[in-house]
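Hello forum,

I keep getting stuck at the same step: I have a sequence, I want structure tokens, and every attempt I make locally crashes halfway through. Rather than fight my setup again tonight, could one of you with a working pipeline run this one for me? It's a single chain of 183 residues.
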Amino acid sequence: MQIDEGMRQDNKYNLVLFGNINKALASVDLKTYGSDKEQQLLSYLAYLDRTFGTWVLFIVAKTFVRSLAKLRDAYGQLDISNYEYSSSFLLKLDHQLLDIQKNTIPFINELKDYCDDEKYFLSDVYEFKPCHEMRKRQKPLFSSIRNVLLNHADLIVRNEKSIRNIAEASRLIASVEIIQQSC
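Reply #2:
Ran it on my machine without issues. Output:
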């Protein structure tokens, strides 16, 4: 089995798992998964399904990284000199920041706990075997994904803190502009 990861035109990630089921299951003893072939196959696929949760975490983490980057850029494009527009736009951005924070902060805490112990993390996934010789010399796929998830978690924490500081500074500057305009 192989995994094809790509980005669609709408900037959403796509994951496609493909392969020849007969080849993928050729070396697997399905007898312990059920009494008949159908039950064995369904039980084995349920076992593989645990792996898909990790893929979902991977995509969610990437989505949060991208959302925070867009929000950071939006704060950076704020025109403080137009105080009427900037104050309403700043309020909109602050609402977006709060929406992202209420989801990312619990997500990151749980993600770090989940990824903290490598043995626990790897016990919850099906390890894919690489098809290409070059990839066989690299770390196993889910060990690498675990490292990427931990890096994304750290990046999300740093970006959220940075955006919070930018938002605070922007509000302060906008407040000073409003006071100066009224004098």
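The longest strand covers residues 2-7. If your local run keeps crashing, start a new thread with the error log.
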